[in-house]
Design a protein that fits this description.
heterodimer; A: 392 residues; Methylamine Dehydrogenase, Chain H; five-stranded mixed sheet; elongated; B: 598 residues; Beta-Lactamase; 4 domains; five-stranded antiparallel sheet; 17 strands; 20% strand; rod-shaped
């Protein structure tokens, strides 16, 4: 074999070896060498434009947050005593003064509570451990002065979790048959049936269009729910004269949704490939605008109706922990409000201020909300644009 | 080691495959590492943000109203534990003095002083890519700020195990795929190498057949690609070569037939003495078969000498030589054509017949001269005498005139014989055949010759077969033939002899023999008796001044030949001569085959 051929073969073998050996280690990024990241590189894909000037997170009390009043000056908190006699309490927390006043005390579990529209009372649900009724949940209303308590539902109804205020003293709840029951404190009641008896996870009432907006599943154990809206104008009845809701599907595979206070927009989180997508449905034009994609969990409209608070979990971190983010409704501004924390309640926006409230575990221990070892936090934020800072 | 074309094709395919495999593997691995690191940087930035938010919010909610740095230092372990649980990463904190104050992992042995030094100088996050114990990690360090004041540093060891695992799987599957691909490549290349080299092998085989002078070989290739074009061109070339070869062979055969048809010997020689071509006369004249060089003519030095003369520049050389009882005229000249080297041509012409003819011609002239002189001398002698002597004697006058007249007629007969001999070669001598009774003709001739026979008291006896049919012959020529034969028989018989003439039929031939019992002739004379102008000595002795040109029996022979017959002479000196003439008779077949040769 000629020398030239031998040299070529050797060179080829060397090159191949270099390729093979070097292919397994990084060449583009050197090892054991500190490399500075310039600010834009450092942010990578996380470069964010924020319209928040500042935000502060304050611990304002203990307990699990359930609701905020129409005036924004009171929070309904659930707390369980640690020492005997054990009781479950629904307290009122004044966020400004951080003072707590007891409202309801029960030996049963208080699973939910809502201010009525006029702040004349509170609707709440009690879950009994009555084995005869299979541990049913019952709805009550207690007047603000705590003198009057009315039973809004029968134990046999075994109402489901979702509650929704319709109007002044009227509440909507779901019975064991997946029917939507409308009842007011005067006892008047209506029953709405949904086609195929959809299992409703969450519902909100659009008072402007008299529509019920809800998350419904065809089966109880279905993984994903769809977002529907149905008119409650009492126009449609079935053959037997029962009121029926004819839901119109807005979006599929929705995790959570929120209705703006002016009832014009519905923000919702749906499945999008491996992530989730935050979208806004315009109630007037029926158009959908996609805002952002990320690992969102919950969505809440703020009082100004132009911002949305979302919770997001980390892909690589512990997915039980969620961070709070504030987005503008066009998705251009995004601000992180908290580090990942254990959020143990709904995230509720103040109807009057640039503030949000939620409950998180004390010492960030992963305990269930039922144990009540939680703090109530308030995050106040100030926008860069002064106009946004004015109270809505 | 010399690789065949097929071997090189296979080797190149394998080399290209391996090279591409390495390049792809390199790009995939490096790309995967780079992408994963970029992704990790994004995650690390988020971790840093989460940490900063958490720490600042925790410090804000601290109600001890201490210095933030102090609060941070005091609660750093708690913060690190919480963040490690939240982010699922190894978190550690440094104070402002770069002392490690908190570490979520208890077994960290990492020295990040170089990163901290860099971080301290420009306050931008720093990361370091490390592989420790086969585990890849990204170490990220960033300053922590509270109200725009740096209170310390946070660090994170981002585990790249997923990337390592992914790379391991990638490399494993690549190697498996490479192995499978390599095997498939070998199989496919080996099978397709034959497909691609097949036409080339066929071309080679056809070229070999052409080399073995099989110019009819054709390659069949269906596709219209580069190989198809090559095979088409090759087939066209083969057909052209075949056509040209055939043309050359035809020309060569023509040349060979032309050379063979020549009456002369031909010898063409090149500059180096090799024989270009020769014909059969070369073997005939010189007894040399298939000469290769001029030097094969070992006994024909005159040829070699002539060749040397030509090579030395002589333009034309000719020489007459005697070789093997032949007279040969050798003529040599160069063959030159513009652009071609000079070759030489030697023509060998057999001039033996010419020489012989020349010799006979000389003899004839000598004989004719002598024969013409004799009567002319007599005539001139007598006329001189009559003129000079003024002879009045009637007897003398009569004798002289008679002699002059007699010699004149002799001259006339001699001239007639010469004219007849000349006509033999001309077409007007062709015989005019008719059916004739040859017995009657012979009887008539015998009748005519009686007066000469009677003068010498010779008796001519004629016997013939009654069943002899007619012959197809020229009456005048046959008459002349038998006159000449009988004339000689009478001439060479002694006084009182008899001459027997017998005609019989044998094998469809009329056989007539004329037997005299005269002086006969020797064997040598018998050999030449039919030659033109040949005269025996006895003829001169018995001519009585009436000698001819020696053409009598020559004419007889020609006439017999013209009649498709034969003539033979048997003679014994002093016992006589028998001349036998055979002429074919007319039968049913011969009447159809033979015709008037006019």
């Amino acid at each position: 074999m000629r020398k030239k051929t031998i040299h070529r073969l050797l060179l080829g073998c060397v090159l191949m070896s270099v390729f093979l050996l070097s292919g397994c280690t990084s060449i583009l990024i050197p090892q054991n060498t500190p490399l500075s990241l310039n600010p834009f590189e450092a942010q990578g894909d996380n470069h964010q434009d924020s319209d928040i000037k500042s935000n502060t997170m304050t611990n304002i009390g203990d307990g699990t947050l359930y609701d905020v009043s129409e005036s924004g000056n009171a929070l309904l908190i659930n707390e369980t005593t640690k020492v005997p006699p054990f009781s479950n309490n629904i307290n009122m927390l004044k966020p400004e003064t951080k003072t707590v006043s007891s409202f309801i005390s029960s030996d049963k579990r208080l699973t939910n509570a809502l201010f009525d529209k006029e702040n004349s009372g509170i609707f709440y649900t009690e879950k009994s451990a009555d084995t005869a009724n299979g541990g049913s949940t019952q709805l009550f209303w207690t007047s603000a002065d705590r003198r009057t308590t009315k039973s809004m539902s029968q134990p046999a109804e075994k109402i489901q979790a979702p509650l929704c205020l319709k109007k002044q003293n009227t509440i909507l709840y779901i019975n064991k048959d997946n029917a939507v029951i409308e009842k007011n404190t005067n006892g008047k009641s209506k029953t709405y049936q949904t086609p195929n008896h959809l299992f409703i996870d969450k519902m909100l009432y659009d008072s402007t269009r008299q529509e019920l907006i809800f998350l419904g599943k065809r089966t109880e154990d279905a993984e994903q729910a769809d977002l529907y809206k149905a008119s409650m104008k009492d126009n449609e009845t079935d053959n037997e004269g029962n009121l029926i809701l004819t839901p119109k599907c807005i979006a599929r595979n929705v995790f959570d949704f929120s209705l703006s206070s002016d009832n014009k927009h519905i923000g919702y989180i749906s499945v999008f490939n491996k992530d989730r997508r935050l979208s806004i449905y315009d109630n007037e034009t029926n158009r959908i605008k996609n805002i952002a994609e990320d690992t969102y969990d919950t969505v809440t409209y703020t009082a100004d109706n132009y911002h949305i608070v979302v919770t997001k979990h980390s892909v690589f971190g512990n997915q039980n922990y969620q961070s709070l983010w504030l987005l503008s409704d066009d998705g251009k501004s995004i601000s992180q409000l908290t580090a990942p924390i254990l959020i143990m309640s709904k995230v509720i926006a103040s109807p009057t201020e640039n503030a949000i409230y939620f409950s998180s575990n004390k010492d960030n221990e992963q305990t269930s909300a039922d144990t009540g070892s939680q703090y109530v936090y308030c995050i106040n934020f100030e926008f860069l644009d002064e106009k946004n800072n004015s109270k809505p | 080691m010399h690789l065949t074309y097929r071997g090189r094709m296979i080797a190149y395919n394998i080399a290209i495959f391996l090279l591409l495999f390495c390049i792809i593997l390199f790009c995939v691995v490096q790309g995967t590492i780079f992408v994963n690191i970029l992704g990790a940087e994004n995650d690390l930035f988020q971790i840093k943000k989460d940490s900063e938010l958490y720490v600042t919010q925790a410090i804000s909610s601290d109600q001890t109203h201490r210095d933030p740095a102090s609060v941070f230092s005091k609660n750093a372990n708690q913060y690190a534990s919480y963040l490690a649980e939240v982010e699922n990463q190894h978190i550690f904190f440094y104070d402002e003095k770069q002392n490690l104050i908190a570490d979520s992992s208890l077994h960290t042995e990492t020295n990040l002083s170089d990163s901290l030094a860099r971080l301290n100088s420009d306050n931008t996050p720093v990361f370091q890519y490390r592989v420790t114990g086969g585990v890849t990690s990204l170490y990220y360090l960033s300053p922590l700020f509270y109200n725009d004041k740096r209170i310390g540093f946070m660090g994170c060891q981002y585990n790249m195990q997923k990337m390592d695992s992914l790379l391991s799987h990638i490399i494993l599957f690549f190697c498996l795929a490479g192995l499978v691909g390599f095997c498939i490549l070998i199989v496919v290349t080996l099978s397709y190498a034959d497909h691609f080299t097949g036409p080339i092998k066929e071309l080679t085989q056809i070229a070999g057949e052409i080399n073995n002078e099989n110019y009819d070989a054709i390659i069949y290739y269906k596709r219209n690609d580069e190989i198809g074009e090559l095979t088409d061109a090759f087939n066209t070339m083969t057909q052209n070569i075949n056509r040209v070869i055939k043309q050359l062979n035809t020309e060569r055969n023509r040349l060979a037939s032309v050379l063979a048809s020549l009456d002369d010997g031909v010898l063409a020689i090149d500059q180096k003495g090799y024989i270009i071509t020769s014909n059969a006369y070369i073997k005939k004249y010189f007894n040399v078969s298939n000469p290769k060089t001029i030097y094969d003519f070992r006994y024909q030095s005159f040829l070699r000498d002539m060749y040397d003369d030509l090579r030395n520049g002589k333009n034309h050389v000719s020489e007459e030589i005697d070789c093997n009882s032949r007279n040969l005229l050798i003529i040599g000249s160069p063959i030159s054509d513009s652009g071609l080297e000079e070759n030489y041509l030697i023509i060998i012409r057999n001039i033996t017949a010419d020489k012989q003819f020349e010799s006979e011609q000389k003899k004839f002239i000598s004989s004719v001269s002598h024969e013409l002189r004799t009567p002319l001398t007599t005539i001139i002698g007598y006329t001189d005498m009559l003129m000079r002597r003024n002879v009045t004697d009637p007897e003398m006058l009569n004798k002289s005139l008679t002699t002059i007249n007699h010699e004149g007629y002799r001259l006339l007969r001699l001239v007639d014989d010469l004219l007849n001999a000349n006509r033999l070669d001309k077409t007007e001598f062709d015989v005019h055949r008719t059916n004739l009774d040859l017995r009657a003709l012979i009887s008539s001739v015998i009748e005519q010759m009686q007066f000469k026979a009677v003068a010498k008291e010779i008796v001519i006896n004629y016997k013939y077969d009654e069943s002899i049919p007619e012959v197809l012959g020229d009456y005048d020529r046959l008459q002349q033939l038998f006159i000449n034969i009988l004339h000689n028989a009478i001439k060479y018989s002694d006084v009182g002899d008899i001459i027997d003439v017998v005609s019989t039929l044998e094998n469809n031939m009329m056989v007539t023999s004329v037997r005299d019992y005269g002086v006969g002739m020797s064997e040598n004379e018998q050999i030449h008796i039919f030659d033109a102008f040949y005269r025996v000595d006895e003829d001169r002795a018995r001519s009585n001044g009436e000698g001819g040109a020696g053409l009598g029996l020559y004419l007889v022979k020609q006439i017999v030949d013209k009649h498709d017959g034969t003539i033979t002479i048997n003679s014994i000196p002093d016992e006589g001569t028998n001349v036998t003439v055979k002429i074919p008779v007319i039968n049913d077949d011969s009447a159809m085959d033979k015709g008037d040769a006019s």
